[in-house]
RNA sequence: GCGCCCAUAGCUCAGCUGGAUAGAGCGUCUGUCUACGGAACAGAAGGCCGGGGGUUCGAAUCCCUCUGGGCGCACCA
C-alpha cells in the first residue's frame, strides 16, 4: 500500500482529486476502483458506481472525472470506454523514469505495522514417514516465512514435532528390543514408517499371555511421562534419530528449519497439569464424562450439543488440545508474538479454532494478537481419498525427491554434455527440487488436490524450471557480455547498472510488470499466499522470453545494448530474488 | 444430523475480495529449426464457470437453494 514505484498506486490520489473536484469534497474518499485491464495499462472503474450518487449517466460521470483529471507526465492517453470505464495509457517516459529511479526492491515495500510473528509449520511426527502431505506444509510454511522476513517482519519459526504421547511406549520398547544399533533401528532414518509399523504390528499381535509386549509398552509410557531418567534417556536418543531423518529431508529440500526451531509437544509437558488446574479453578474448564473439558462458544457436535475440547482425559493423561493451549500461551507470553500463524492441514480447522477460542477465554490470546490457521488442503490419492501414512505407503518423500533429481539429470545430461559432471549434478538437484517445490507452491494452499507424480516432476510449462530457465538464459547473456558481476552483484535496492530505455512493446510490457513486484510481494505477505508470487514470476519469465525473442541484446549497438543488458540484469535479480522467497535456487547453468 | 471447504477447457490449476470478449500449463493439431541456450517461441481447436433462483448498471466472484465430492464432529495426535 506504500510502494513508491507502482503506477497504479501512484495514480490513486490523482483520481481521487479529480473525483473530488468534479463532484464535491464529500466524494474525496471514494474508492477509485483502479484495476488492471486488457484494454489499457490501468483502468478506473469509479464512474459506474458513482453515477447514481451524482445523478448522472455513467459515461457522463466518467467524462467529468476525465475532465478534472490531472495526469500530466504520467499518462499519455486517457479515454472513456464502454459503459463508463476510464482507460489510462501510461506515458512511456514515466515508466522509464520509475524503472530507472530505483529498482523495485523488497526493502522499499515494507508494510506499515511490522509484526513479531510466530510461524508453526512442517511439524512432522517422530518415527513417521513424511509424505507428500507434509511436504506441502513444509514448503508453503517456509515460503511464507521467507516472504514475511523480506517484508521486514520479525519471524520466529516453530517446528512443533510430534514427539510425545502414547505411541512412544511402543516405539521405545521396540527400539530396545531390536537393539539401538541394529538394522531394524536404522529404519528410523531411512524408512521411519517401516519402523513404526513394525512396532505397531508387534503391539497389535501381543497379548498379556504371550510375550507381554503391549503390557511393557503401556508401562513404558507411564515411566516416560513420570520422568524415569533411564526411559527418558532412551526416548531422547530415539527422537534424535528421527531428527536426523527430518534434517536429511530439510537439507535436500533447502528448508530453513534447524534443530533450534524445534519445540515439540514434549517441551510443554511440564506445564500441562498447572494449565488444567488454572482453567478448572477459573471455571473455564469443567469435568464432563470424566474428562476435563472446555466448551468454547459456537461449537456444536453431532447432536447439536456443545462440543468439548478435552484438555485432560478421563485416565488423567493429556492430549494435543492441552499441548496446543500451552503452546499458544508460550508463543504469546514468552515469545512475545503479536501474530501467530499455523500452517497446518485443513482438517485441523475446528480443533485449532477451539483452541484459539479457549485461549481467548483464558486471556492467553489477547484480542490484539492475531491467530490464523493457514489451511493446507489435503493431498488426495488416485481414489480421491486423503493420503495417509497409516494405511499402506503412498509415495515416499525421499523417493519422490530422488526421482525428481534423476529426471532433471537426464535432461541436462542430454542437453548440456559440455558441462562437468559436478556442475550437472548441482543443476539437476536445483531443478528437480525446484520443480517439486514450485508444484506445491503454485496452487492455492487451501485447495485440495489429487497427487499426480508427473505433474509434480514436470520440467516444462508453468513450472519452477521454466522460471529458472529464463534466469539461466539471462546469466548466459550477461556472462557473454562479460558483465555478470556488474549486474548481479548490486545491492537489492540498487538502480539498474545503466539507464534503461523503454522503447519496444516487449520492453514496455516487461518494465510494467517489474514495477508490480512490490505490490505483489505485499499482497503475498498480507494474504499468506505464495502462489501469487509463483504467478508473478511465471509471467515475468514469459515476458522476458518474449523480449528475448524480439529484442536482440548482444547484437544491439551502443546505448541500446547497454540498456538491454541493464534490463536483463534487473529481471535476473527479480527472478532469482523471487525464487529465493519461494525457497527455490537459481541455477548458474541449465 | 450439524459445521467447514470445494465444483471453471479432455486433464491439472489461476482468476488479484463485483467490471468489458473467463485465463495459463499439459495434452491434441499447424508452424518456427545453422540459436544472445529448443527445458524455448508463434498460432489453432477446446467453456451455458455443477443446476436453479436472487442482489446489482454489471456476477465465475456476493446471498439463498438443489445436486455431487472432500474433511471434521469426546478421551489418537
Output the CATH class name of the domain at 397-582: Mainly Alpha
Mean pLDDT equals 90
Instruction: Trace the largest sheet across and list its strands.
Output: 1-2-4-3
User: What is the overall shape?
Assistant: globular
Going by CATH, the architecture of the domain at 397-582 would be Orthogonal Bundle
Structure classification: alpha/beta
Helix percent reads 40-55%
Helical region count? Answer: 22
**Gyration radius from CA atoms, angstroms:** 29 Å
Low-confidence stretches: 104-109, 389-393
**Strand-residue proportion:** 5-15%
Name the CATH superfamily assignment of the domain at 397-582.
Isoleucyl-tRNA Synthetase, Domain 1
Our measurement of the CA-to-CA distance between the termini, rounded to an integer number of angstroms, reads 37 Å
Largest sheet: 4 strands, antiparallel
CATH fold-level label of the domain at 397-582: Isoleucyl-tRNA Synthetase, Domain 1
List how many beta strands DSSP finds. Answer: 13
